[in-house]
Amino acid sequence: xxxxxxxxxxxxxxxxxxxxxxxxxxxxxxxxxxxxxxxxxxxxxxxxxxxxxxxxxxxxxxxxxxxxxxxxxxxxxxxxxxxxxxxxxxxxxxxxxxxxxxxxxxxxxxxxxxxxxxxxxxxxxxxxxxxxxxxxxxxxxxxxxxxxxxxxxxxxxxxxxxxxxxxxxxxxxxxxxxxxxxxxxxxxxxxxxxxxxxxxxxxxxxxxxxxxxxxxxxxxxxxxxxxxxxxxxxxxxxxxxxxxxxxxxxxxxxxxxxxxxxxxxxxxxxxxxxxxxxxxxxxxxxxxxxxxxxxxxxxxxxxxxxxxxxxxxxxxxxxxxxxxxxxxxxxxxxxxxxxxxxxxxxxxxxxxxxxxxxxxxxxxxxxx
Length: 368
Description:
- This protein is α/β, with parallel strands linked by helices.
- The chain has helices at about 5-20, 40-50, 55-60, 90-105, 135-145, 165-170, 195-205, 250, 270-280, 290-300, 330-345, 345-365, and strands at about 30-35, 75-80, 115-120, 155-160, 180-185, 205, 210-220, 240, 260-265, 285, 305, 315-320.
- Keywords: Signal.
- This is LysM domain/BON superfamily protein.
């Protein structure tokens, strides 16, 4: 299964250990950092923030990073401040307040339009959850988009924990207009066999522009052969843990599926990491920020479970409306318009960083 690239992987892993103790020590939050030979997103995050969660760094540098596992030496990255703001810029809270004030000054139309009904799942921190301000990152982005770019559209938000019901029942029956938020495949890519979920999302729904790009990692024991996998082909044959109800689309797109993997589907990230620890699974696959928070919650360190530094997935999340909704395209176009303005103004990043700051404060308070 493994090939000549294995030797390179072993040497690179050794080099990374040395670098994390040396050059990486110069990295600090709230500065710009020039990538050195052997740096990875995880080692940069650990040196700057003390955590392997590099999603915030990726968010702040999305315009210059195309592959989180392939950082070119000499690339200059912006390392966000501890509060999520960018070096030498407004804080997230200041920028959000300014945009809200600007939007409030725009004259509203007197023509009545019914509130757009949004539905999200609960307990999916930091993306959709009632425990965070505004309902989490994706919920805040959705509701804010309806108040930007001249939209000024009222809305309601409900949390329904049965995720499958969103696409199978609630949107098709018209109980809600928009569901927050879903991994949307590349619907032009037919190089792999589409699952029923991929068929459905491409053919039955109208998707917004990409709202948030999620980095997914592959996590295993430090001594496992799979920590040395340098491409997705090397992961075939593994027993892989993916939480129940979580989309397989992002894995199918890179050639990993039920035909070449043995899959286990517990209900939580904690159970997936437990499966790796006990040998029930070789690899767990889910978001890097969820990995970091779950590791902290379980009291685990890199001596227990590590992220493979060579392979990762990148999935775009969007808002979905069902094609049978007569206003589906209108509502999605409205949200797209707002999202584009939010990216241009910087409010998109400010909302993300502000919510991650709030989540980190909750996690730190809980651990003290």
